[in-house]
Amino acid sequence: MDLPKLDSLTKTWHTEPYPSISPTRPELSAKGKNVIVTGGGTGIGRAIAVAFAQAGAKSVSILGRRVDKLKEGAEAISKEATTKETKVLYEKADLSDRSQVDAALKSITDQVGKIDILVSNAGFLPTPGQLLDYDPAFLMRGFELNVLTTLNILQAFVPLAGPEPVVINTSTAIAHFRPVTGAGGYGISKAANLKLVDYFAWENPQIHVVNLQPGFVPTDLNGHPDEATDVGKILLPLVTATHASRDHEKLMMAFCILAELPGQFAVWLASPEAKFLKSKFVWSNWDVPEMLEKAEEIKTTKLLDWKLEGIAM
């Protein structure tokens, strides 16, 4: 299989946290901010929620369908909070059901007030497979859980948003890669998710919106399946099955990250330092100091936009 080349915007490629994105940096403080993370009970979502608690958020609320995972996640987040003043809440909600989403957000705002930061992280990984033999039901399920759920949370969020709202959409490289055999079911729905958020950002310019590719987390290395990003679950089996064993170590070094990397990177994205990334698509692997050097170029050009290559529209 001919995989897309892993190009990088920055010369430095990160796989674990580093000082520039530390949630304890005063410049990244989330003090006074109310944060909601969908899919925040496990994996990347939990890591993001933990990082905001470490940044001193006023409250961190997580949404999901599994109460046991939400309880575990809330306990872990509370333990990592840098101040006892951070309120940690969880709400059970099926994000494909708008009434449940509305009820969950109302419960949260009744307790803590307006929402300042929304991390739309929950998603669904359809069964991999080539399209000629693909079950349409899997494809439609992907649209329901990767597109409709995002629309529901965004629509519910806006009326309850604070004065300087931020939305971080956890996306995937599969949405902008050229086709990867077997990943079509996922890539199609996530590309639709990305375009939905693109329209949302355009129609709501008062909201700071950023799309984030969190990184690749191989399940067989860390022994924690819940910590694997969706793209990692798809790409890594395909990669290891189609490349020579001598390439395995090199591939693992490129693909493997710690969940704390996107967790802390999300805190940086919500900070004033990242204002130049409004409506852009970024990878958590990219180096923050190098991106800051490119800030004016990124802000004033189509760099990191989702577009048709070679066409200036």
TrEMBL record:
This is NAD(P)-binding protein. It comes from Exophiala oligosperma. GO terms for molecular function: oxidoreductase activity. InterPro entries: NAD(P)-bd_dom_sf, SDR_fam. Signal peptide: none annotated. Pfam families: adh_short. Transmembrane segments: none annotated. It comes from the Eukaryota. CDD domains: SDR_c (cd05233). Residues 1-26 are annotated as: Disordered. Keywords: Oxidoreductase. SUPFAM superfamilies: NAD(P)-binding Rossmann-fold domains (SSF51735).
